[in-house]
Each structure stands twice: as structure tokens, then as C-alpha cells.
Specification:
- Helices cover 37% and strands 19% of the residues.
- With 551 residues, the protein is α/β, with parallel strands linked by helices.
- The longest helix is centred in the last third of the chain and has 29 residues.
- The protein is globular.
- 52% of the residues are buried.
Length: 551
């Protein structure tokens, strides 16, 4: 029988809109995932480097997964709701109807995805202005940010889209608007992807110099003139319509949202590590770096004072943890690259068949296969003469060079499962070496990072995690809850509900650490040599490009 003194448990819903699916979790006040659901979402690629989605499709998926996770729970105990999403651009007309972002005029497809690279010439021109706001994005704006995409729409779809547009939302802000009817924006996407300054607001001169002076004319109504800190309560909570759609109670608190990677950082970086003999114990939170690794990877480091890191986005004030400056490194294709390399190999059907026969997923099987063929040496040493440069989708950090391509050195005529396992290993090592490149650049600029906190889909891959520990030489902390991004989103909902005094308090109470993976220091010399080759690959690629420019 339940004790009369026992307090009822409070619950929060976190909703995460990723690249390929929408996920939701019901999470209690202690940070435990009580229920979890996911739903695939549509993506269109009408031409190379054009990636589009539908806001109607995404909202429908949000409703489906939320109804699933709250089933069987008294929704009166659900105190708050938090959203995170990819930093994709949502376009609506003046009546909040979807507007086509494509030549086909297909209005359902009203989102330019984060990974869309259609605005290359626009971002080149923006970077050519050398405007002062660019110093807060590592000196070079990425094609994945919103100003070049907006400029592309104005120049390519002026009549059908640009002139009819009433609202341009970052996807996380679209979701909070859909839930509350309030068009207020979160500081996180505006600062990180739109050039908004927390203390100065919008820089009118920037929009004018890049040719988007129209956005200034209506006092920034289309891109946001009311800005809230992540975790702040939006409006009066859920509208009656949204509450019905989601299966929740009208008025349930809704938080100002976060970009998905930032929610992952929030879910892991503040956890209590006492008693685990980690170098970050009894050290400030600034000694930690959150690595959120899924389709792409983001490297989130925070500091007390602004640190300007060449080729690394930021510093952004209060964009993830209130009161701290954020620097965000990134790799545009990591999980997507591993899938590309493995599934494109001629031995992939054999891998599929053998993995299925042993009731394992393909990556668990590949990891086991590497253990079989390594003989007496560590598995990582199998790539002594096989090297990969992983920028198949350009370099986001720290070189900020969209034109860089992938490279593989050391191929043979062999095409079997052993060779597939080796190129898979070399690709994972290349991604880890890219992380080391980002870390060293951040540390050279003034960061002091001792411990990595990993979350996201790739953190479930033991080889990926161990390679990151061995290559960087730093211990790795995995979250107790694999779904750290959803925990981060729920932390926002908990803050909006008023149940915690601050985001930091909610992070400490709801973030929990799981396994700790330490580097094999005996392998350091090998990975130092691999890193030396890694840096040479980029250097050589640029030399090749210079030679061919003379043609």
C-alpha cells in the first residue's frame, strides 16, 4: 500500500525532431526514461544537395509519439513539455500556411533541412563581406546556417515564396509556436544560426549588406522580435488544439526550445561524476566537452568568458547552459558517412546475411569480426596502411572548408568482408581523428578540456566510443540514459514548469552518468602517427586542388 507521505512523481515530456525521425520520451523528475517512442519522417531530395521536409508531417509525428509515451499515465502529473530539433528552416505564409521552398511549388515541402547545401554561392558572398557578426561563427559562416538559405529563397523563389512569406522559423521555434500559438523565438537557434546577439539583438547593417534589408523593414517580425532563454515558459502553455493533438492537458507548460545537439549537451554535461576518479571531478563544468554523435556530430564546449576559435562556431552566450559561452565544433557527416561506406561496399549483402544469421545488427557484427581478424595486436592497429579523410560532405570544423572531399589511401583489389571491416574501422578512426583536430584547435584558443561526455546514436557503438578515447587520450563518460537528447528536452520542460530553480539544477538532478570508457594509453604512439597522416591528407588535398586549378 502506498505511503500517504510519499510524494507523487512529476513527469515531463521531451520531443526530439531528428533528421530521419521524431522521438518522444516520458521522463520523471529523477531523469529516468519511463516510456519512449519514435516515428519516421519524410525527407525529399529533389536534386543534389537540396534536402526538404514537411512541417505538417513533422507535427503529425510529434503528436503520434507523444500520445504513445503518455499512454497509461495520469496526464495531470505531466508538468512540462520541451522540444528540440535540427536547425532546419521552416517557411510559412502570413496565415501560417506552409510555403514551398522548391521549384516544383510543392507547398507541403516547406522546410529547407539543416544539411541542405543549395546556398553555396550565397554563403560565399556573405563571407566575402567580412562583416563583424562572422567573428561569432568561427570567422566563416556555414552554408548550413539560415542567412544564406534566406538569401537563396529571395534570389531563386522571389515571387512564389519570398514575397508571400510571413514567418521564417528555425524548426525548434516552429514546434513551440505550434504548441502555444506564440511566435517568440528561443535564444539558442537565433544566436547559433541567425547571427542574433544576446546583448545587442539583430545587427541591421548585416542584413542590409547581404541584401536582406526586407527583414529589417517590419522590425524583424518575420524572423523574430521576441526572444526567450531556453527553458523559459512560452505563453500560457499548450493551446486547447495542441493539447488535444498531443494527448496532454491544456495549459501544460511549454519551454523555449533548443537545437537537437544542444539538448544532448544539456542532457549529459552537467551530471554528477563524484567517485569515478575522472579528471573533471571537482573541476568547473568548463573542463567537460559534450559530443553529440548521430547522423552528424557536434562538439559542445563551454567557457566563463568568450573564446574565439577559428573554424569553430561561437562563442554564443547562454545558447546551451545559461550564463556560459558556448563553442560548437562539428562534423557534417559521421553516422551518415559510416552508413555510406558500409552499405556501399560490395560485401555488404554478405555482411547483412551473416549479421542476420547471428541475430546481431551489422555494426555489432563488424566489431566482432574485427576482433576475429586482429590476431595478437589491438584491432585499431589493423589500419596501419589504410587512411581515411572523412569530409565526404565538406569540413565544418575546424577548417570550415565546404569544398574539401573525402579521401581513402591504401585500397587493394580485395573485396571481401575483411576489407569491409577494415574500411569501416578506418572510417571510425578518421571521425575520431577529426574530433581530436577540433579539440586541439579549441584548446589552442583557450579551452581546457579533460573529459568527453558522449551521447546520441553512435555512442551505442562500443568501437566508436573506444576509438574516440584512444585517439583523443581522454576518458569518455556515457549517459546512463542512452536518450540524452530527450533528457535534455525534458529538462527544458521541467524548467518551464517551475519545478527547478534553474537549468543548472535540473541538469544536475536529471542527468545521470553510466559507463566510463578510458583510453588505452599504450596505443598512444600509433594514434599520434595516424593523426600525423590525417593532417597530411588535408594538406595534400589542397595541394592537388592548387595543381588542378592551373588547368
Amino acid at each position: 500500500m502506498q505511503s500517504e507521505k510519499q510524494d507523487p512523481v512529476n513527469y515531463y515530456v521531451g520531443i526530439d525532431v531528428g533528421t530521419a525521425s521524431v522521438r518522444a520520451a516520458l521522463i520523471d523528475q529523477f531523469g529516468s526514461v519511463v516510456a519512449h517512442a519514435d516515428q519516421p519522417i519524410q525527407m525529399w531530395e529533389p536534386q543534389t544537395d537540396h534536402y526538404e521536409q514537411s512541417s505538417d508531417d513533422i507535427w503529425a509525428a510529434c503528436c503520434t509519439v507523444t500520445k504513445k509515451v503518455v499512454r497509461g499515465v495520469d496526464v495531470a502529473w505531466i508538468r512540462g513539455l520541451g522540444f528540440d530539433a535540427t536547425c532546419s528552416l521552416v517557411v510559412m505564409d502570413k496565415q501560417f500556411r506552409p510555403l514551398a521552398v522548391n521549384y516544383e511549388g510543392e507547398c507541403k515541402r516547406n522546410i529547407i533541412m539543416w544539411m541542405d547545401h543549395r546556398a553555396v554561392s550565397q554563403v560565399d558572398r556573405i563571407n566575402g563581406t567580412q562583416h563583424g557578426v562572422l567573428s561569432y561563427v568561427g570567422g566563416v559562416m556555414s552554408v548550413e546556417m539560415q542567412p544564406p538559405k534566406l538569401l537563396w529563397l529571395k534570389e531563386n523563389l522571389r515571387e512564389s515564396c519570398w514575397e508571400k512569406a510571413g514567418y521564417f522559423f528555425d524548426l525548434p521555434d516552429f514546434l513551440s509556436w505550434k504548441a502555444t500559438g506564440v511566435t517568440a523565438r528561443s535564444l539558442c537557434p537565433l544566436v547559433c544560426k541567425w547571427t542574433y546577439s544576446p546583448d545587442k539583438g539583430w545587427d541591421e547593417s548585416f542584413w542590409k549588406v547581404i541584401g536582406l534589408e526586407d527583414l529589417v523593414a517590419d522590425k524583424y517580425e518575420k524572423i523574430g522580435n521576441q526572444v526567450l532563454s531556453p527553458g523559459a515558459s512560452v505563453g500560457k502553455g499548450l493551446t486547447p488544439e495542441a493539447a488535444k493533438d498531443l494527448g496532454l492537458v491544456e495549459g501544460t507548460a511549454v519551454a523555449a526550445s533548443l537545437i537537437d545537439a544542444h539538448a544532448g549537451g544539456l542532457g549529459v554535461i552537467g551530471a554528477d561524476v563524484k567517485g569515478h576518479n575522472l579528471p573533471c571531478e571537482n573541476q568547473p563544468i568548463t573542463s567537460r566537452l559534450a559530443l553529440i554523435c548521430g547522423t552528424s556530430s557536434c562538439h559542445m564546449g563551454i567557457s566563463d568568458a568568450p573564446i574565439f576559435v577559428p573554424g569553430v562556431w561561437g562563442p554564443y552566450y547562454s545558447a546551451m547552459v545559461p550564463g556560459f559561452w558556448l563553442n560548437e565544433g562539428g562534423q557534417s557527416a559521421t553516422g551518415k558517412l559510416i552508413d555510406h561506406v558500409v552499405r556501399g561496399h560490395i560485401a555488404f549483402p554478405e555482411l547483412q546475411a551473416k549479421a542476420a544469421a547471428s541475430a546481431q545488427n551489422i555494426y555489432t557484427y563488424l566489431n566482432s569480426h574485427l576482433d576475429l581478424i586482429k590476431k595478437s595486436l589491438p584491432a585499431g592497429f589493423l589500419t596501419v596502411d589504410l587512411h581515411v579523410w572523412p569530409d565526404f560532405h565538406g569540413n565544418r570544423s575546424p577548417l570550415a572548408d565546404l569544398t574539401l572531399k573525402g579521401m581513402v589511401v591504401g585500397l587493394t583489389l580485395s573485396q571481401g568482408l575483411d576489407e569491409l571491416a577494415l574500411i569501416y574501422l578506418a572510417t571510425i578512426q578518421a571521425i575520431a581523428l577529426g574530433t581530436r583536430h577540433i579539440l586541439e584547435t579549441m584548446e589552442s584558443a583557450g579551452h581546457h578540456i579533460s573529459t568527453l561526455f558522449l551521447c546520441g546514436g553512435l555512442s551505442k557503438n562500443s568501437l566508436f566510443v573506444q576509438m574516440h578515447a584512444d585517439v583523443t587520450g581522454k576518458p569518455i563518460v556515457l549517459s546512463k540514459e542512452v536518450e540524452s537528447v530527450l533528457v535534455g528536452a525534458a529538462i527544458l520542460g521541467a524548467c518551464a514548469s517551475g519545478d527547478f530553480a534553474s537549468v543548472q539544477e535540473a541538469m544536475e538532478r536529471m542527468g545521470k552518468i553510466g559507463e566510463i570508457v578510458r583510453p588505452n594509453h599504450g596505443d598512444k604512439r600509433f594514434y599520434d602517427k595516424k593523426y600525423e597522416v590525417f593532417l597530411k591528407l588535408a594538406e595534400h588535398q589542397r595541394e592537388y586542388k592548387a595543381i588542378m586549378q592551373g588547368v
